[in-house]
Design brief:
The complex is a heteropentamer of chains A (about 425), B (about 170), C (about 100), D (about 375) and E (about 170). Chain B is an alpha/beta fold and about 170 residues long. Chain B is about 20% helix and about 25% strand. Chain B has 3 helices and 8 strands, in the order E-H-E-E-H-E-E-E-E-H-E. In chain B, strands 1, 2, 3, 4, 5 and 6 form a 6-stranded mixed β-sheet that branches. Chain B has a two-stranded parallel ribbon with strand order 7-8. The radius of gyration of chain B is 18 Å and the shape is globular. Chain D has a single domain, classed as Orthogonal Bundle (Cytochrome-c3 Hydrogenase, chain B), CATH 1.10.645. Chain E is mostly helical and about 170 residues long. Chain E has 2 domains: about 90 residues, NADH-ubiquinone/plastoquinone oxidoreductase chain 6, subunit NuoJ (Four Helix Bundle (Hemerythrin (Met), subunit A)); about 45 residues. The chains are: A mainly alpha (about 425), B alpha/beta (about 170), C mainly alpha (about 100), D alpha+beta (about 375), E mainly alpha (about 170). The interface between C and E is large, with 75 and 87 residues.
Chain lengths: ~425, ~170, ~100, ~375, ~170
């Protein structure tokens, strides 16, 4: 790949230069093992300072509240600091000062341990995300399955939180989150398997490399996989419209009902952290990661990546501000009856295409043919499967019937008295 | 416009449907005999001419010598309203037949009347206090509530100067 | 210097702990947890053998572990379904209370 | 999830402190997994025994009590009570007073339905957005109330024989400025929710009340109309000159929560029509008749009802020629609409129960009084 | 295998795994036992990483921690009486004796044997494993899929209750 990025340490388009220079310097003066210890620290600090912390505070907390406030015809935080930008800091300080109550009948050890279990995987998740061409913290060969494995852990923490609170709402939330994650894990893993089959690699930098080489993002090659991934991941993350595990109007706050103070704050912050991680993962897999058809030569790739992540996160915010919430049986039915068959269909289609790709000698241009096949095929598959399940787009009246005079009953089935 | 039935009109209709069910009638209401009240109310609901399918209101009135249970019956199709009353004379254990089996919506109003007046509704599926808690002394909407056994006094119990209990206000009833 | 013996020792200790749990627990779910531990220790042993060898044995170890994990998943699903079904009919999952033939 | 969770039925308290009970209202729901097998309501957390208190105060002094029953529609409650006293004492209200009452009652209906529809959307999980849109318009209505009566929530504006004060000079201008944006907000809310698949999945065929049950259970208001019964006291038994205004009764199709929601939205449109007409034809003259402060109506009884935002709001007064009512009874529509709570919730899931409760649009101040 | 970091990791993981397994044994609360079990699973996954089997390690976490542990948690919550009880039967003495004896025998065998080890080659990649599973081991692979299907069907049939069998209607129109 032709690249304009140089190896000078001051070339901020590739921050790995800087860390490499630092490490080489350390290596000259310090024993061999020290560089091993310093390298992860540099990566960790860099990832946190550049991406995780600002995203979490200023996109996750402040931006989400501002954007939702705009959607809801109100202002959102605007008092603390310029434009209210310091609101997350103020919130964190407030949470730190609050008393973290523990109910008498709660399992105190587990209730204390749950937020800790919840936080740890969130940090691990960012380790395998490639921020730039050479900016991946841990290039695990099986990075994709690492991501799946680690993102399954917070469910356990949420279950522990709900169970240990010894509250019926909490227990309901815990049961719901476990049932949901079991259901939605299946289509999620299946569509990621489609990606693996198609790109022939399980390493996340490899997947980005594939998208750069074929000059086409996977969202265009596998639109169905992207849609299924978005729905499944928003269900796993408990984002509206699928936030039934902490459905405010039904079970108060779900598994978080009894949490307060910083223990609650950890859950809240890490919820955003997981959503950001899922957004980063999706932008890596489906949106081309740090690549942008050559623009990455001029703009720092990590900035492109962060922009894509935040764009994806914005969609989360948007759905949250717009859509009502589904019921649990509807959600489970949706996962098993709708998403799972579609994911299997997509896997089948993609495997066939990959086989064809291997056999044919069309070269790299084949991805455009595949795109031309897959986009209509996905739409047709969704439509046909919906029809097969008996879903018909019926015209449901959005306006009631109008009558002039009071008195008497108007029959339920009365086509003449339509109020349209 | 809704036709508001006078007591006489309702008495006529009730007498036609269930003979002997009317005790007397006033300008606004028809007082039904307690033992025929349930039958008469059901007939008033089912008869196509009266058609009082909707029980608009049910409440109690304490008239010192008797309790009245007031039913405001309403017909949606014929657009008419009538007022029927049933009286209970026993001051200690007043009792009236329940109309829950006629109008389902009566249960909540009957419970409330039981709670606040102490009128028992025979045949009510689940007659419990709904606004006040179980064990609350007395029934507050009775006129002699403040003089009832274990009755409460206005104001705080420990309020200075309330040691002498004032006589409950008694007003002559016409 | 880590040798095969290190890993095998850990595997044996884990296996025997699992065995003791599986043999001594009163609760059927506890027994199942012991069995899962034993399966894990077997996996550990297989992977260790695979790592410290070359040729076809290496890949056989990995394949065996994949099958063991599959079987363990199936076994856990069925066993827990059994536990739930038994609990529903007899209100207990204690193995020494489950004397179906005697009642 | 009920397929997976087959635990023993256990009691789950929805309320008294719960985000979706709209006040201190409590449902003791017995649930089996996610399915509600029994629902029992526990009331009285806000009971103030207003009916007893009112027996000790004069007729005029009782008006502020009615503000505090249904605190989301105080104007309607004032109006119902004043109508009952006027019926008891035979007082006529001048035309301007009647027109002002109509405008106020309809504005109050708009404000109350803004809250009701928004809160229902919130109960289905549309997280705060619709309710915020509607609240924005409701604030403007409350501003108008403040301008007119000096209070936003507990207005205490109606008087026996008319209203307390005449309208301020720029009243008409403010109300006209309100109507257009409110129409748009209603359309927005409808566009956001009415055709939304998720909203339909949550609200359609949930908490269905058949027509027969709706009538038999004494339901009223949007609950009754949602079940397809064309019944509106403004049409059936017009008071305050409602017969002069041109409006329609919206009725639903099958009596589910969705029907009640769209009926409420359409009622808001009709209310806007009435307000426009009433503003057009606002007559001059006095806004109130002179009524003695210590009113002593002749002995007798009177039952007057109005169509409050929640349904048939009735006041039953018995007079013994004293300065205060001998018996003062409120027919609270919220309470009586709750009588079908069990029929609406049992058999559905907890989420459905919340939607059912939200579709009743209860106000606990009115239930407990 | 001779790196200092790897050695430290080995000892930490050994202690973690064995202590967690002991925790499964001694904790009286079944839910705590499951959490210890999860720690043990994660420890074993760490061993797999040490042994250069990343894919198996991830599969271990996904399946054991993500699926089996969650299933066990679910089963515990569904059998409420069992939550607080993880005690041993009278067989605990013989079981421990057997365990200790077996450990001794195994340890003797392990340390007595001279293993022909070859620790030089790097680990196996996931694609190698995939090729092997679909070529050499294709028959067991297919049988495993049948086994999984059978287990799935069997588990569903076991927990179906009578009420669901009678009302065999789809509950959600997705």
């Amino acid at each position: 790949m032709p690249t304009l990025v140089t190896d000078h340490w001051y070339d901020f388009r590739d921050l790995s230069n800087l860390s490499r220079v630092i490490l080489e310097g350390i290596d000259k003066v310090a024993p061999y093992e020290l560089a091993y210890i310093v390298a992860p620290i540099i990566g960790f600090v860099a990832a946190f300072v550049i991406f995780v912390l600002p995203s979490q505070l200023f996109v996750g907390v402040y931006g989400e509240r501002r954007i939702i406030g705009r959607m809801q015809a109100r202002k959102g935080p605007n008092r603390v600091g310029p434009f209210g930008l310091l609101q997350p800091v103020a919130d964190a300080l407030k949470l730190l000062q609050k008393e973290a109550l523990t109910p008498t009948a709660a399992d105190k050890t587990l209730m204390w341990a749950a937020p800790v279990f919840f936080v740890a995987p969130a940090v691990l998740l960012f380790a395998v995300i490639p921020f730039g061409p050479r900016m991946v913290f841990a290039d695990v060969p099986a990075g994709l399955i690492f991501f799946i494995a680690v993102s399954g852990l917070p469910v356990l923490a949420a279950f522990i939180a709900g169970w240990s609170s010894n509250n019926k709402y909490s227990l309901f939330g815990a049961m719901r989150i476990v049932a949901m994650s079991i259901s939605y894990e299946v289509p999620l893993v299946l569509v990621l398997l489609c990606v693996v089959v198609f790109t022939n690699t399980m390493s996340l930098p490899g997947i980005v490399e594939f998208q750069v080489d074929s000059n086409l993002w996977l969202i265009f090659m596998q639109p169905l996989a992207f849609v299924v991934y978005f729905i499944a991941v928003s269900a796993e993350l408990n984002r509206t419209p699928t936030d039934i595990a902490e459905a405010e109007s039904e079970i108060v706050a779900g598994y978080l009902t009894e949490y307060s103070g910083m223990k609650w704050g950890l859950f809240y912050g890490m919820d955003i952290g997981y959503a950001l991680a899922a957004a980063a993962f999706a932008s890596t897999i489906f949106l081309g990661g740090w690549s942008m058809w050559g623009l990455e030569q001029w703009v720092p790739p990590w900035l492109l990546f962060i922009a894509k992540t935040h764009l994806f996160y914005f969609v989360f915010i948007w759905t949250r501000g717009t859509l009502p919430r589904l019921r649990i049986d509807q959600l489970m039915g949706f996962a098993w009856k709708f998403l799972l068959p579609l994911a299997v269909f997509n896997l089948f289609l993609v495997s066939l295409e990959r086989l064809w790709w291997n056999e044919s000698d069309l070269g790299g241009g084949i991805v455009f043919i595949i795109m031309a096949i897959n986009i209509p095929a996905s739409a047709i598959a969704v439509y046909l499967w919906a029809r097969f399940l008996g879903y018909k787009p019926e015209r449901i009246p959005t306006r009631p019937r109008l009558v002039r005079e009071a008195g008497g009953y108007v029959p339920v089935e009365d086509p003449a008295a339509g109020g349209q | 416009m809704t036709r508001w039935w006078t007591g006489e009109e309702l008495a006529e209709a009730a007498e036609r449907l269930v003979p002997g069910s009317v005790a007397r009638s006033t300008a606004t209401a028809c007082i039904l005999e307690a033992e025929h009240a349930h039958e008469a109310l059901r007939a008033l609901r089912d008869d196509p001419e009266t058609n009082f399918a909707h029980l608009s209101n049910l409440c109690g009135v304490d008239q010192w010598d008797r309790f009245e249970v007031v039913y405001h019956l309403q017909s949606l199709e014929r657009n008419q309203v009538a007022c029927a009353k049933v009286e209970a004379f026993d001051r200690e254990e007043p009792s009236v037949a329940s109309v829950v089996d006629i109008w389902h919506g009566a249960w909540i109003q009957e419970s409330e009347t039981y709670d606040l007046f102490g009128i028992r509704f025979e045949g009510h599926p689940n007659l419990q206090r709904i606004l006040l808690w179980d064990g609350y002394p007395g029934h507050p909407l009775r006129k002699d509530f403040l003089a009832m056994p274990g009755g409460l006094q206005p104001g705080l119990n420990e309020f200075a100067g309330t040691a002498a209990k004032p006589e409950p206000p008694v007003r002559p009833v016409t | 210097m880590l040798t095969l013996e290190h890993f095998l020792t850990v595997g044996v200790l884990l296996f025997c702990l699992g065995l003791v749990i599986a043999l001594s627990k009163r609760n059927a779910i506890g027994v199942l947890m012991g069995i899962e531990l034993m399966l894990n220790s077997v996996n550990l042993t297989l992977i260790a053998f695979s790592r410290f060898s070359t040729g076809p044995a290496e890949i056989a170890g990995h394949a065996f572990v994949a099958f063991v994990i599959t079987v363990a998943a199936a076994e856990a699903a069925v066993a827990l379904a059994l536990a739930v079904a038994v609990y529903r009919s007899r209100q207990t999952v204690e193995v020494d209370q489950l004397d179906l033939l005697r009642s | 999830m009920s397929e997976i969770v087959q635990s023993e039925p256990f009691v789950m308290n929805i309320g008294p402190q719960h985000p979706s009970t709209h006040g201190v209202f409590r449902v003791k729901a017995t649930v089996d997994g996610e399915r509600v097998v029994d629902a029992e309501m526990v009331l009285g957390y806000l009971h103030r025994s207003m009916e007893k208190l009112a027996e000790e105060r004069t007729y005029t002094q009782n008006i502020p009590f009615t503000d505090r029953t249904d605190y989301l529609s105080s104007m309607s409650n004032n109006l119902g009570y004043c109508l009952a006293v006027e019926k008891l004492a035979g007082i006529e209200v001048p035309p301007r007073g009647q027109a002002i009452r109509v405008i106020m009652a309809e504005l109050q209906r708009l404000a109350s339905h803004c809250m009701g529809a928004g809160a229902f959307a919130n109960d289905t999980g549309a997280w705060q957005t619709p309710i915020m849109w509607f609240m924005r318009e409701r604030e403007k209505i409350l501003d108008i109330f403040e301008m007119t009566s000096g209070a936003r929530l507990t207005c205490n504006y109606m008087r026996i024989g008319g209203v307390a004060f005449d309208l301020p000079d720029d009243f008409e201008e403010h109300v006209r400025a309100l109507i257009g944006p409110l129409r748009e907000t209603i359309a927005d809310g409808e566009g956001l929710l009415s055709g939304n698949e998720i909203f339909l999945a949550r609200a359609r065929n949930v908490a269905v009340i058949p027509q027969e049950l709706a009538v038999n259970a004494s339901l009223s208001g949007p609950m009754l109309r949602g079940s397809g019964v064309a019944w509106d006291i403004r049409k059936a038994d017009p008071y305050c000159g409602y017969e002069q205004y041109d409006f329609d009764i919206p009725i639903g199709y099958q009596g589910d929560a969705y029907d009640r929601f769209i009926v409420r939205l359409e009622e808001m449109r009709q209310s806007l029509r009435i307000v426009e007409q009433a503003l057009e034809a606002l007559p001059g003259g006095p806004h109130s008749t002179e009524v003695p402060l210590a009113l002593r109506p002749p002995a007798g009884e009177a039952y007057a009802r109005i169509e409050s935002p929640r349904g048939e709001l009735g006041y039953y007064l018995v007079s013994d020629e004293g300065p205060s009512p001998y018996r003062f009874h409120i027919r609270p529509p919220s309470l009586i609409n709750l009588s079908v709570l069990k029929e609406m919730t049992v058999g559905g899931s907890i989420a459905d129960a919340i939607v059912a409760l939200g579709s009743i649009d209860i106000v606990v101040g009115e239930i407990d009084r | 295998m001779d790196n200092a970091g790897v050695q430290i990791a080995f000892w930490v993981l050994s202690i973690l795994t064995l202590v967690a397994a002991g925790g499964v044994m001694v904790s009286r609360n079944l839910l705590h036992a499951v959490l210890f079990l999860i720690v043990a699973f994660i420890g074993v996954a760490g061993f797999f990483v040490l042994l250069s089997a990343e894919f198996i390690a991830m599969a271990q976490i996904v399946i054991y921690v993500g699926a089996i542990a969650v299933l066990i948690l679910f089963a515990i919550v569904l059998t409420p009486q069992s939550i607080r009880d993880n005690s041993e039967t009278a067989m605990v003495g013989p079981a421990i004796l057997l365990g200790v004896a077996l450990t001794a025998v195994f340890l003797f065998v392990i340390h007595d044997t001279t293993w022909a080890t070859d620790a030089t080659d790097p680990g196996l990649s996931a694609s190698d494993l995939g090729r092997a599973l679909l070529s050499t081991w294709v028959l067991p692979f297919e049988i495993a899929s049948v086994l999984l299907t059978a287990a799935l069907v069997g588990a569903i049939m076991l927990v179906r209750s009578e009420t669901e069998e009678s009302e065999d209607v789809p509950d959600a129109d997705a």
